[in-house]
Every structure is written in structure tokens, then in C-alpha cells.
Amino acid sequence: MALTGRELRSSVHDDGTLRLMLEDVVMDVMAPDEIVVRVEAAPINPSDLGLLLGPADVASVRTEGTSERPLLVFDIPAPRRASVAARIGVSSAVGNEGAGTVVAAGEDAMDWIGRRVGMVGGGMYADLRKIRTREALALPDGVTVAQGAALTVNPMTALGFVETARAEGHTAIVHTAAASSLGQMLQKICASDGVPLVNIVRSAEQVDLLRGIGAAHVLNSRDPDFRSQLVEAISETGATVAFDAIGGGTLGSDIMRAMERGAVSRMKEYSRYGSNSFKQLYTYGALDLSPMVLDRLAFGFQWSVSGWLLTPFLQKAGAETVARLRKRVFDELTTTFATHYTRTIGLGEALDPQLLRAYERKATGEKYLINPTQD
Fold this sequence. Notes:
The chain is α/β, with parallel strands linked by helices and 375 residues long. The chain folds into two domains: 3-150 and 340-374, Medium-chain alcohol dehydrogenases, catalytic domain (Quinone Oxidoreductase, Chain A, domain 1), CATH 3.90.180; 153-313, 3-Layer(aba) Sandwich (Rossmann fold), CATH 3.40.50.720. The protein has ten helices and 20 strands. It has helices at 46-52, 145-148, 153-167, 181-193, 204-212, 226-237, 251-265, 310-317, 319-331, 353-360, and strands spanning 3-13, 17-27, 34-43, 57-65, 70-75, 91-93, 97-105, 116-120, 128-132, 136-138, 173-176, 197-201, 217-220, 241-244, 247-249, 279-283, 288-292, 303-307, 343-345, 368-370. The strands form four sheets. Strands 3, 7, 8, 9, 10, 19 and 20 form a seven-stranded mixed β-sheet that branches. The longest helix has 15 residues, at 153-167. It is globular, with a radius of gyration of 22 Å.
């Protein structure tokens, strides 16, 4: 029996616009090990917004289509269009992770029908999602679909940061945009595991939030003496690796400079090449779309700047490590990895311009959940 549902899609066009719309998707032929899940929860993460809206100018939004099938159109500023040139003419399904109930299955997976599962792999902003059983995580009793929808992106990323730091021999970490849901998880992990963490935020309220969950080092990047505070905190902790969600501007450079200042202060002899301390900056987000500016002569020659993504990390980590991290997420799902949502919206509501402006702000303490069964 064929099943039909809506799917939220994002497309880029050669006229310099990005468009969001709901498209009908028919699911009929199924492989023996495939299941169809009725999606009941899918969080809106910053990584989702990167595909949903890309470099579009949100302020330029205009509504076309009908009330039942709205179409949102955005302008992409000319300097940003090169970054999405490969997407022109491509309609992309959106939503990295979700959860729901299995409503249909292939011949080898009939015992999955009725189970509640968590999923990752894209295309989760939809009424229905077809997926192979090996890619689904059965939710234990007592775990809600809202909890199960957030099993991967933030929890596994936060754990991945700590795993990466340890594997590379770093003993302390710097994290930006640290008051986010992911940042709060990272703070709890580091506190539990005894890993010194320097949190960087951008408001006094965010400082109070992190101190309230036990953070020892929280810096407000808008303080006039932020740079001197950063040198002091990094010197005290010995941090030599940073995970940066901002991407653009000079913050990454400021962090590397502070790491070098701390290392140089411990040197017994001068070297015109700077310290021998290796400093690593990983960029995993793009909250600031402007170019990254690095004052490379301020931090010697022992350094590297790289990108960090969850999927490549999981592929390199291997099955045993991934299983260990997954178990920790399940064990601490209602504590370390608890996710709190500001509001739950329907799939159609995600195309309401006013709501879109709200969830696109990525404001601390504001996290939205899509429940396609709600409309």
C-alpha cells in the first residue's frame, strides 16, 4: 500500500533566490529491511538552518503559493551566491534528526511496526520518513519522541569534542557560543569527566546560565577586557584546542593568540618562531557568515585551523567508540543530554514567516521542535 506525505524542501534558483515549500512524497516500493516512520518530533538545530536557509537574507522573505501550500522566497545576497552554486536547481530535503512511530515495513522488518524510533540522516521535516532498520534506534520505554528526536546531533557532537581533544593529547578545551543546548551538554560532560573548559558567550545572562550549571570559566566576549580575561583563563587551564561555532570574524584568532600568550609565558628561552605548544582551532559552525580573520603572526607557527563535522568524526571513530558514546547518551538522556524546547510547531507552521524569524535567530534558550502531526 502506497503512503503519501508532505516533505519540507529547500531549493536554490539561478535568479539568486532560495525557496522553501512543502512537496508531496509517495512511498510505495520498500526494500525488505526498510521501515516507514510517522515523524512526530524533529528539532530545529543550527546545522539544519544551514541547509534550510543557507546564506539567504531572511529579512527579504516574501510569501507566495496558497494558504494550504505556502511558498517562501528569499533573496541570496550576490557575494554569498558562490557558496551555494552547486545547489542551483536542486530540491533538498531538510532535517537532520527526528523520531516517531513505525507505520509500515518491508517483509524482513514487520516486527518493527508500532515501535517508536529515533532517526538521523536527513529529510526529517516530513510527515513520513523511509529508513533502513540499521539506521533506526529503538526508543526505550519511558523515553518520549521529543527526547528521542535529539539523540544524535548535539549529544554526539559534544561527546565528539571531548573524544577528539583526548585523542590529540589536549587536556583542556575552549568552546564558543557556549550557552547553547550543545554548549550546556559539553559543560556537563567536562565537569563530570574532569576536563577543564573555557566557555565563551556574549551576554551577562549567558554567563549566569552556565555558572548556574557549575561552569568555572565563563567569559563574555562583549566585555571590554575580554581578551585579557581569555589569556588568563587559557593560561590557568592550559587549553590548546578550541571548538568554534561562530566561524567568522576575529574570535578564533583571539583564542589562538591567547593560547600562544599562555604558552610563551611558560617558556624559559625566547624563540622568534613562538612557542612549541601546538594549538588547534576547529570550526564547526557559521553563526557569523563573514570571513574568518586570522592574525597568524600573533600565535607562532605551531597551529592548525580545521573544520569539524559529526559524520566524519563518527566514521573515523569506529563502531566500538560510537556504541560507547551512544550508550552514554541513553544512560544520561534526562540529565546531561536533556533537551528543552521553547515551542512545538507543525510542519506547515515552519513556513510561517513570523515563526521562521523566531527560530532562525538561534537565540540562547529558544529551541523549536517540529511535530508534523500537529497540523
